[in-house]
Amino acid sequence: MRTYTCTCDNTLFYDNNLCLRCGSPAGFCPACRQVVALLPSGEGGWTCGNASCGVALMKCSNNVEHNVCNRCVPAETAVEAPLCDCCRFNVTIPDLSVEGNLQKWQRLEAAKRRLFYELGELGLPYGTAADGVDPPLSFNFKADIIPSGEYWRNVGGGQRVYTGHDNGRITINIREADDVEREKLRVELGEAQRTLIGHLRHEIGHYYWDVLVKGRREEECAAVFGDHRQPTYAEALERYYQDGAAPDWSTRLISAYASMHPWEDFAETWAAYLDMIAALDTAQHMGFGGQTDAVHAEIEPMIRLYQELGVGLNELNRSFGLPDAVPEVFIPPVFEKMKFLHELVRQGRGENGVLQPEMVAADAPPPTPATDLVSAPLPAAT
Question: Which residues of the chain have pLDDT under 50?
Fold first, then answer.
């Protein structure tokens, strides 16, 4: 993740919606792909403060109405209450009448924006059904439904939302945006990377299995990750939660959960790949991680540099009494899987061509995401 510069020369960060030095509104411009000062242009519009861009912009309606977004939409493509290139993928948002849900949604959107930054940097294809993309990518941010007056019960007769992926639809239980609840689960389940961005990187891995592997490279993928047909996902899931992780997982897999099923091995390794891309990108732009172009670099030097960076980050975290920033060990079997994913990413980038969903013209008002009033379990891969 890089930093940006305001018109007053102050540093702007990716999540900024305000410059703390000059007080200018700030936001992400989809034309120059930078966080910029937003200069008022009259009638509620804005101009990109990047002197080499200067595009007319409108703020995302989720920025204006709820302050959960800092992205803009080109004014020439905007409609009334426009949604930005990230928010337009939402199908369901939390019920904002429930205390605390707005703050949880803000955290979820911040993590999702970082995911989209990574997908954009890698040039991976994605889009909605309106873009002609199949399977279309979308997001549900939903809560468990607990019967009134039965808050002491563990869901009880209500409905539980399962974080997971199903044919392009990524569902996240919003309790993952509660730091206390998520930390309890992280420790209980032994998942070192259980974070909001970690969830999204994992679930987008399932999406890209559908996009880049399914019906195309399944046999090649099975040779690296194992046969996803045997056992079935349902059988593997039951066995995992009954018997736990495979005892030898650390000798061949990136995480314990990866031992559940080859699909989960793929998604866990994909998440680790995106962790690496994000860390190297941030280190490079902050001036302490060397020069690594994730688009053109080979996987071997990238992993070596990430390992070196990880040692330093881990020791820094330990000096503060924090968990390791890079807990994964890149043993030879994991290295081969990362190599396969790196090739898949290049394939996806090549097939993507010039498609950049954030620049697709809005011919009609985008759909308004539903408020989460009714939740249902998601039976597909988690």
Answer: 148-157, 354-367, 372-382
CA distance 349 to 279: 20
pTM exceeds cut of 0.85:
yes
Helix H or strand E encompassing 345: helix 332-352
Supply the angle between the helices 196-208 and 262-286 in degrees, to the nearest 10.
120
**Residue whose entry in the numeric block shows the structure tokens 């930078």:** 34
Q: For residue 109, what are the contacts with CB-CB under 8 A and spacing of at least 6?
A: 62, 68, 69, 86, 87
Closest CA to 194 of 275, 265, 253, 310: 275
67 with 91, same domain: the answer is no
Same domain, 223 and 97: yes
pLDDT one-digit tens code per residue, 175-226: 999 988 888 888 887 787 889 999 999 999 999 999 999 999 999 999 999 9
Q: Is the dihedral of CA 62, 67, 68, 73 positive or negative?
A: positive
Q: How far is CA 167 from CA 136, 138, 239, 287, 289, in A?
A: 8, 9, 24, 39, 37
Close Cβ partners of 30 (under 8 Å, ≥ 6 residues apart): 71, 72, 73, 74, 84, 85, 358, 359
Query: CA dist 34 to 23, 29, 296, Å?
Result: 18, 6, 21
Rg (alpha carbons) of the chain, rounded to whole number: 21
Residue 367: what pLDDT? 45
Q: Where in the sequence is the domain holding 341, given as residue range(s)?
A: 87-355
Q: Is residue 187 part of a domain?
A: yes
Identify the helix (H) or strand (E) that includes residue 379. Answer: none
Q: Could you give the CA distance from residue 87 to residue 75 in angstroms, rounded to a whole number?
A: 16
Sequence-distant (6+) residues with CB within 8 A of 22 are 6, 7, 8, 10, 37
Neighbours of 164 (CB within 10 A): 21
The verdict on residue 374 lying in a domain is no
